[in-house]
UniProtKB/TrEMBL annotation:
This is Tyrosine decarboxylase. Keywords: Decarboxylase, Lyase, Pyridoxal phosphate. GO terms for molecular function: carboxy-lyase activity; pyridoxal phosphate binding. The modification N6-(pyridoxal phosphate)lysine is found at K299. Belongs to the group II decarboxylase family. PANTHER family: GROUP II PYRIDOXAL-5-PHOSPHATE DECARBOXYLASE, TYROSINE DECARBOXYLASE 1-LIKE. The keyword Lyase applies. GO terms for cellular component: cytoplasm. It comes from Gossypium trilobum.
Length: 475
């Protein structure tokens, strides 16, 4: 890490990345390589001697870039996007540059304190009740992913319940509730904390409720479980589901959760970012009834991977579940209980200084530009939705709430896989990349608008591409 070499070589890497962004539209959006392509291009074993950076960058160009699906391409409309920004990149550089490991306060006080401050900033932007903020009675932490956050809150909920029930032998009684639209990561998390897979209830949703979880159906399933001697533990409600962007009715679900003493977690991984806009904030109404809430700034908040905010009303429950007290880490600050030791709020010991990145993103954009980013994506999605609506061969399958449009070619009995073929035709053209979902047995095409570089003309070109490919398929 000689500072002169560091400075010179970093400039070369930054120029390389700038060039990548300059040309990102020229690559096929979805990689076209075949499985195993890379081992045919790279040596079988690691080099013994150091290699020049220039050679490595050449190999990145020739071997790595062809195997990338270009998530930062403005023509990427699949899954949910992974936002990036210059500010997010700077934040990552600073994080990497300092490379501190803030597992407890003393190991890097700024890392811990900035994280607590930024979580309160974000919480205030979302108008979360003070019961979730450090300036109130709760607190927040940055994780790498929603899955990690889910494991941690499920562990806290599990341990609280097992304490009340009298011991670990009761774990087989605990039940977790979610809808059939809830992200699969919660099933994985429940399994990881020892909830028997047969005790994970996926409550069916339908077109009639716009794929949101019905409080009546939830109550019905809970009552049935109680009659069978089981113990309701945890409910995950989602704001902006992955398949269709549906929103679960938080206030009503919250009442059911309170009645049956369920831990209510809100997964706002995608749409949580949108809730900084006053016109979308109502989707969070009822959040005061939740025990915890998480969202991913790395999806729609101009924050480079990885970054997941988790707020919790009773951080003590997280700490009770996850804390460790090895001699090697003992120190007076921790003993004083006047500081946060984030190792006790997550799975791993080591942790990145992610707060620096989120802090730089918020400061460089300001709330005004962050809201502009969300609103312009929603405006493009509205326009795309209108274009689909004007073409009688197509239909919108579920009403749009955010910047995700679910649509399809109207089905004809003899062409069941028409929409699947359409997605394949679009993706294999290399000019755009889209993904799909299946809602109540119906294959829908998802157009997720939100990549940082996407502009109106990209969306218009996408629609033209879809129409052309549809025309060829229908001939
Ligand atoms: N929840 C929702 C609604 C999502 O859309 C996603 C990913 O797209 C996740 C959770 C999983 O997030 P992570 O990859 O951070 O675990």
């Amino acid at each position: 890490l000689d500072p002169v070499t560091f400075s010179n070589e970093s400039k070369a890497v930054i120029d390389f990345i700038a060039d990548y962004y300059e040309n990102v539209e020229k690559y096929p959006v979805q990689s076209t390589v075949e499985p195993g392509y890379l081992s045919a291009m790279l040596p079988e074993s690691a080099p013994y001697c150091p290699e020049p950076l220039q050679d490595i960058l050449e190999d990145v160009s020739n071997c790595i870039i062809p195997g990338l699906t270009h998530w930062q391409s403005p023509n990427f409309f699949a899954y949910f996007h992974a936002n990036a920004s210059t500010a997010g990149f700077f934040g990552e550089m600073l994080c990497s540059g300092f490379n501190v490991v803030g597992f407890n306060w003393i190991s890097s006080p700024a890392a811990t304190e900035l994280e607590s401050i930024v979580l309160d900033w974000m919480g205030k932007m979302l108008k979360l009740p003070s019961s979730f903020l450090f300036s109130g009675t709760g607190g927040g932490v940055l994780h790498g992913s929603t899955c990690e956050a889910a494991v941690c809150v499920l562990a806290a909920a599990r341990d609280k319940a097992l304490k009340e029930l009298g011991g670990w032998e009761n774990i087989t009684k605990l039940v977790v509730y979610a809808s059939d639209q809830t992200h699969f990561t919660f099933q994985k998390a429940a399994k990881l904390v020892g909830i028997p897979p047969s005790n994970f209830r996926l409550i069916e949703t339908s077109f009639s409720t716009g794929f949101s979880l019905s409080p009546e159906n939830l109550r019905f399933v809970i009552e049935d479980d109680i009659r069978s001697g089981l113990v309701p533990l945890f409910l995950c409600a989602t704001i902006g589901t992955t398949p269709s962007g549906a929103v679960d009715p938080i206030a009503e679900l919250g009442k059911v959760a309170m009645e049956f003493k369920l831990w209510l977690h809100i997964d706002a991984a995608y749409a949580g970012s949108g809730c900084i806009c006053p016109e979308l904030r109502h989707y969070l109404d009822g959040v005061e009834l939740a025990n915890s809430i998480s969202m991913n700034p790395h999806k729609w908040f101009l924050t480079n991977m990885d970054c997941c905010c988790l707020w919790i009303k009773e951080p003590k429950l997280l700490v009770d579940s996850l804390s460790t007290d090895p001699e090697i880490l003992r120190n007076n600050a921790s003993k004083s209980k006047a500081v946060v030791d984030y190792k006790d709020w997550q799975i791993a010991l080591s942790r990145r200084f992610r707060a620096l990145k989120l802090w730089v993103v918020i400061r460089r954009h300001g709330l005004a530009n962050l809201m502009y980013h969300i609103r312009s994506d929603i405006a493009m999605a509205k326009r795309f939705e209108a274009l689909v609506g004007e073409d009688e061969r197509f239909e919108i399958v579920v009403p749009r709430k955010f910047a995700l449009v679910c649509f399809r070619l109207k089905p004809k009995v003899e062409e069941e896989d028409l929409n699947c073929k359409l997605v394949e035709a679009i993706n294999s053209s290399g000019r755009a990349f889209m993904s799909h979902a299946v809602l109540s047995g119906i294959y829908v095409i998802r157009c997720a608008i939100g990549t940082t570089l996407t502009q109106q003309h990209h969306v218009d070109a996408l629609w033209k591409l879809i129409q052309d490919k549809a025309q060829s398929l229908l001939m």
